[in-house]
Each structure stands twice: as structure tokens, then as C-alpha cells.
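Dear support,

I submitted the protein below through the web form. The confirmation email said the job was done, but the results page showed an empty box. After a refresh the structure appeared. I'm attaching both so you can tell me whether what I see now is the final result or a partial one.
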Amino acid sequence: MILDFGLTKEYKAKLGLGKKEEIYYCIPYDIDAAGNYIKDAFVVVSTQRIFVLEKGELKESFLLSDLM
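What the results page shows now:
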């Protein structure tokens, strides 16, 4: 199972990863919060955060420590 679909350099820059922060998972999704079909959207899990990217823009970011 592929769990790292990779991101372009431009998308990675939008995440603002810290020096020691690494991406563990990067998976595409195609249905937004309103139930609409979308393209170019990813959920990214790093060593410290979860990110939601839509159409090249950072939509949401959550600290993993806040979710536990």
C-alpha cells in the first residue's frame, strides 16, 4: 500500500516544516468537507503535525500533541 504519494517542492514549502520534522504519510483525497468532489488535495502526516492541503493551499494544520 502506498502511503507517501509525495508532494512538489512548492507544496512542501507551504507546510513550513521544522528542521527535524519529516513527512511520514501523504495521501490524496477527493471529497471536501462539504461533500464536493475536488482534485489536488492531500492529507499529510509529519512527525509533529497533520496538514490538509487543497489546490496547493494549506487549509488546516493540527499538532499531533493536541490530538492525544
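Response: this is the final, complete result; the empty box was a page-load delay. The chain is about 10% helix and 35% strand.
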